[in-house]
Design a protein that fits this description.
With 525 residues, the protein is α/β, with parallel strands linked by helices. The protein is globular. It binds NADP nicotinamide-adenine-dinucleotide phosphate. This is Aldehyde dehydrogenase (NADP(+)). InterPro entries: Ald_DH/histidinol_DH, Ald_DH_C, Ald_DH_N, Aldehyde_DH_dom, Aldehyde_DH_Superfamily, ALDH_KGSADH.
Length: 525
Amino acid sequence: MITGKNYIGNSLSAKGTQTYKTVNPKLNSDNEWDFTEATEAEVDEAAQKATEAFAVYKQKTDKERAAFLRAIAEEIEALGQEVIDAYTAESGLPEGRAMGERGRTIGQLNSFAALLEQGDWVQATIDHGDPERTPAPKPDLRKMQIAVGPVAVFGASNFPFAFSTAGGDTASALAAGCPVIVKSHPMHAGTGELVSSAIIKAAEKTGMPDGVFSNLNSKGITVGEQLVKHPAIKAVGFTGSIKAGTALTKLGAGRKEPIPVYAEMGSINPVVILPEALKANGESWAQKYAGSINLGAGQFCTNPGLILGIEGAELDTFGKHLAAALGQQPANCMLHPNIHSSYESGKQKMLDANGTEVLAVALEAEGANDGKPALVKVTADDFLANSELHTEVFGPFSMLVACASKAQLLEVLNTLEGQLTGSLIAEAAEVSAYTDVIDALRSRVGRILFNGVPTGVEVCPAMHHGGPFPSTSDAKFTSVGNDAIYRWVRPVSYQDWPQELLPDALKDGNPLGILRKVDGIYNKA
Ligand code: NAP
């Protein structure tokens, strides 16, 4: 049942006076529930509880934390239809997407559990000492990763399950041994509360300390700012806009004790389509890209917002095919009236900008918050002259840029800001003539695709979902896949410690049976 209250550790709490409602964007009306915003005292209480919980939680073994994550997955599943109904009512996304995203969220939790059960993730490194070494004896050094402390997570609007309350940030932080305080996304506070109740149940069932998880309601920036500034918080996970992500990153860096804010922000995900690919398969690529641009009403951080090609008859034909295919796509309901109106005004700016030619723009839609797809074309000269054209329009929008030559294509790529993904569409025979283009594309992105569409982010260890600024605040880290855990840990070296006082991961004899780097060689001995 949705109560509208905050979870301060295991207790429901609503001491504040500010309340708000979520919106059903399909019906364009408020949902029934009232949510009470957390007060400063409740933020502080959650932070204190997280600090106390950390002292206990960090002592739990990997296997105990794995059991907690698996229990969260089970409890989310047990929420059944109620949470699916809340998700669809608060996001306008269809039930099929809700089910799929719930499955992904459960899969992420279980994959972090499996990582803990295997145990290698601590990156144990042992360099044995040598007392006989001259001129000075060599100390015995043993290094592993340990949890940093309580983490604040900002739920994302566009993934109410997979990048929110029990999403990748929370799962990876809990896996690392860090208590989590979620700043619930105001657009899906009811879904967030139900998922929080599942996490609390799982914590109680598996004997985790009170305060290992809290969920704070908030509409507006105050609660988020208080959390990031709170001395108990040691790192932050965020997914959302460049504006908010940059503000929070600065806030974290400006503290007396600076902390990292791992922000996943905007991206226009450039696609380079080479001449032979246009000739051979232009129409089929146009069909695929129309689907990718409009997928989920374009509300994905990997949405292909920029398509680059070399001008000529083939690029013109591709533009026509893409416009026609986009014209066949339905307008889908967007997440919230505000996101819909930002999309409409951002799109209009692009349609009105100097030099843009409108190739496709849907005018009709059934629902008030449906995002009507659009495609514009611009020359590279105009694109290079106006940096406004390089910005993200969050929704089913894309821009085709016609470059006069390969040299100008390179110039455009080298002008782009950092991106999550870049895609190359090419025939095998032409690739060797474009190695400089591929290198320029790779230098801008965290994931480079060959003959594919960037939407669809596989959750697996080799995924890197993070790119140079401003797509993320730190290109070295991913927010998807098991390596997301490394945002919440730091290495510590033990020097000359007796065996019995070392953590099991670093003891001779390897009692955990994990893969370790011993005197430079990886082994499980
Ligand atoms: P947002 O504006 O970035 O907000 C995300 C969260 O951060 C919200 O909980 C918000 O709180 C909080 N927040 C915003 N500004 C803050 C600040 N200065 N200090 C502290 N907290 C702050 O994102 P959104 O509401 O989810 O969507 C708005 C836009 O973000 C979209 O139209 C889109 O452009 C972009 N977006 C991008 C991605 C991506 O993956 N690239 C994903 C989602 C959204 P309040 O809402 O309570 O103010």
